[in-house]
Design a protein that fits this description.
Elements lengths: L6 H5 L18 E5 L3 H5 L1 H5 L4 E8 L2 H7 E2 L2 E2 L4 H15 L5 E5 L9 H4 L2 H21 L3 E5 L21 H22 L3
Parallel strand pairs: 1-2, 2-5, 5-6
Antiparallel strand pairs: 3-4
């Protein structure tokens, strides 16, 4: 029987809010992969008749965070934050309040692999980026964060060719994945505890 490394389960917990309150249990309609745009500002009331919120995707967890959100001392290279802030102000005022700041893991990115899972440096970088993501989500007025983990899914199987088991075991990888997941979750919850 093949054992799968539960990378996805370690990071899926990053949604910081529930979609419905105790008094409003109707299903919520969210649209994926929104980008800040003038239409949201001009038609927020009409949008509210259809959607409860959007997943605003900034790109992958690495380059997307640094380019679209920036870090202290290394500002964003775009005006994404300003445009998203204006969209959120208009959407929230119209009742479109279930908006999430989202990133994805690239299919051709380095993660997950033995090198990325077992590297303290890589884990620290992930924690820094996800902490920045959560801080920006809170600062900009998003409901929470969302992470799309589907693209590198073939590497979630411990039988994938990237895993050579030369100097490490399945247990080593699962322990490393759990440690990395805890570091990322801590960074997110420290920045956006709600």
């Amino acid at each position: 029987m093949s054992r799968s490394i539960s990378f996805a389960s370690l990071l899926v917990l990053l949604t910081a809010a529930t979609a419905a309150s105790a008094t409003d249990r109707r299903p919520q309609m969210l649209a994926y992969s929104a980008q800040p745009n003038a239409y949201f500002n001009e038609h927020a009331a009409e949008i509210a008749k259809i959607y409860d919120g959007f997943f605003f995707v900034i790109g992958d967890w690495d380059a997307g965070v640094s380019q679209q959100l920036g870090f202290p001392g290394a500002p964003a290279s775009t005006t994404w934050k300003e445009a998203a802030t204006e969209n959120l102000r208009n959407l929230n005022a119209a009742g479109v309040t279930e908006n999430f700041l989202s990133v994805y893991f690239s299919a051709d990115g380095a993660w997950p692999s033995p090198d990325t899972l077992q590297s303290d440096e890589f884990s620290a970088k992930m924690a820094k980026h996800f902490g920045a993501l959560a801080a920006a989500a809170k600062e900009l007025g998003f409901r929470g964060v969302c992470i799309d983990l589907e693209y590198p899914y073939p590497r979630y199987e411990i039988t994938h060719e990237v895993y050579k088991y030369d100097g490490y075991t399945v247990d080593d990888l699962t322990a490393a994945a759990a440690k990395q997941g805890r570091a990322v979750m801590t960074a997110v919850l420290d920045a956006f505890p709600e």
